[in-house]
Amino acid sequence: MSLKHAVLAALLEGEASGYDLAKLFDVSVANFWAATPQQLYRELDRLSEAGLITARVVQQERRPNKRMFTLTDAGHQDLITYTAHTPKPTAVRDELMVQVQACDEGDTAAVREHVRERMETARAKLARYERLRERLLDGLDEAAYLARTERVGPYLTLMRGIAFEEENVRWGERVLAVLAERQERQARRAREEQQERRHVAHG
Question: Do 165 and 122 touch, CB atoms closer than 8 A?
């Protein structure tokens, strides 16, 4: 997948400026596709040149003019073609996993702290996602919302983001518990060995 299709899919929400899209990517789309504002603006220019989106300039007083982007028929057709393709398997490259893999020979205390930081990040993302979910539902329960909404895609991807971060928290809690139990067991064994040496020395 390229940023191209993430931007086209985001524009299914309707006309948006580059700033609007940057906010959308930061709050919602980031749970499955990350992009900086600079990357977004460059991609918008490419999509406009390719005829997949169109832009109109909005005059603003006391502020720079802004461009509002909309999908063209060609952009809609490109998305239809894209969704028919089999997606590539997810390729995971997670530095924290490598550190956890090596924690028995490494700095276990530092690894535990890294896991805690990952959990804090996950909880912060969960809080943002839950706020977005509440805005989408707008007082409805999930079943009523899904029955009424015109577009279900954004909610389904949000559900995936929530599930992913919830699992990050659950995994982190388990890792910390396992490492704490292991540390206590090692400390207990060290105390027992020390007591045995003292017993032998005074025997």
Answer: yes
